[in-house]
Design goal:
Largest sheet of chain A: 7 strands, mixed
Order of helices and strands of chain A: EEEEEEEEEEE
Number of helices of chain B: 0
Distance between the termini of chain B: 28 Å
Distance between the termini of chain A: 39 Å
Shape of chain A: globular
Oligomer: heterodimer
Helix content of chain A: under 10%
Strand content of chain B: over 45%
Order of helices and strands of chain B: EEEEEEEEE
Shape of chain B: globular
Structural class of chain B: mainly beta
Largest sheet of chain B: 6 strands, mixed
Radius of gyration of chain A: 13 Å
Largest interface: A-B, 24 and 28 residues
Helix content of chain B: under 10%
Chain lengths: 120, 110
């Protein structure tokens, strides 16, 4: 079964850091581009970042550029999101999502999400 | 405010058809592919439509997608109570160099 499982969420103080991970299984991870998407409580989906299958193309949403860093380790079938300078408005469920065509316009496999709460 | 505009809510009776619109611009919908997602309460989004009108394996043909100019539409026929969910459109925005989603539409099956 093709699956993504996020981990690393939790409670962090404003200005703090957190590193999210996403473990992929059931498919050839190295052949897919990947994304991070978040959803604040009661709000809609917000795309955050994209990384191509060979690491040579990376994109960020304006809201996280300069604070968040996406990375992947294809040898370990894992995707990561390093989040620094966290703010209250970063509180959300964070999803990793597989990119069906490598264009960041359709995401066919999603993890269950990991909750990040930024609060003092 | 979302780059893509969707109606906040739509409703219809069981067995009926409903359409959900998604309006954008030439930098996103007008020149890129559109996808649609269903999100049931408390669950992760599920891909319903990609490349404007393609269904992933396992998605019933009750769900359809279309695109015209800078707008896209999701159609759902034979509505079931289990279709009650939030629906989102998404695409790439070439000007922003970012993926964008609509604000979401809550479907109520009366």
């Amino acid at each position: 079964e093709e699956q993504l499982v996020e981990s690393g969420g939790g409670l962090v103080q404003p200005g703090g850091s957190l590193r999210l991970s996403c473990a992929a299984s059931g498919f050839t991870f190295s052949t897919y581009s990947m994304n991070w998407v978040r959803q604040a409580p009661g709000k809609g989906l917000e795309w955050l970042s994209y990384i191509s299958r060979n690491n040579n193309i990376i994109h960020y949403a304006a809201s996280v550029k300069g604070r968040f860093t996406i990375s992947r380790d294809s040898a370990k079938n894992s995707l990561h999101l390093q989040m620094n300078s966290l703010r209250a408005e970063d509180t959300a469920v964070y999803y990793c999502a597989r990119d069906i065509g490598g264009r960041a316009d359709a995401f066919d496999i999603w993890g269950q999400g990991t909750m990040v709460t930024v609060s003092s | 405010q979302s780059v893509l505009t969707q109606p906040p809510s739509v409703s219809a009776a069981p067995g009926q058809k409903v359409t959900i619109s998604c309006s954008g611009s030439s930098s996103n919908i007008g020149n890129n592919y559109v996808s649609w997602y269903q999100q049931l309460p408390g669950t992760a989004p599920k891909l319903l439509i990609y490349d404007n009108n393609e269904r992933p394996s396992g998605i019933p043909d009750r769900f359809s997608g279309s695109k015209s100019g800078t707008s896209a539409t999701l159609g759902i026929t034979g509505l079931q109570t289990g279709d009650e969910a939030d629906y989102y459109c998404g695409t790439w925005d070439s000007s922003l160099s970012a993926a964008v989603f609509g604000g979401g539409t809550k479907l109520t099956v009366l």
